[in-house]
Amino acid sequence: MPAPLCLVRSSINIDETFGVPHIVRPGETISSSSLQSRPGGKGANVSAAVGLAGQAVVMSGAVGLDAPWPCDELEKRNVDVSAVSRLEGVPTGRAFIQIAEDGENSIVLLKGANFHADEEADDPARVFAKAPRPPTHLIVQNEIPLPTTQRFLAHARRAGTTTIFNPSPMPTREELTAFAWSDVDVLIVNEGEARDLVAALSSSSSGEPGNVLDALEPLIDSRWLIMTKGAQGVSARVRCSSSASSNQARTRFEVPPAKPRQVVDTTGAGDTFAGNVVAAMMTRSASADVDEQGARQILEWAVIAAAMAVEKQGAMESIPKHEDVLARQQA
Question: Do 53 and 325 touch, CB atoms closer than 8 A?
Answer without folding.
Answer: yes
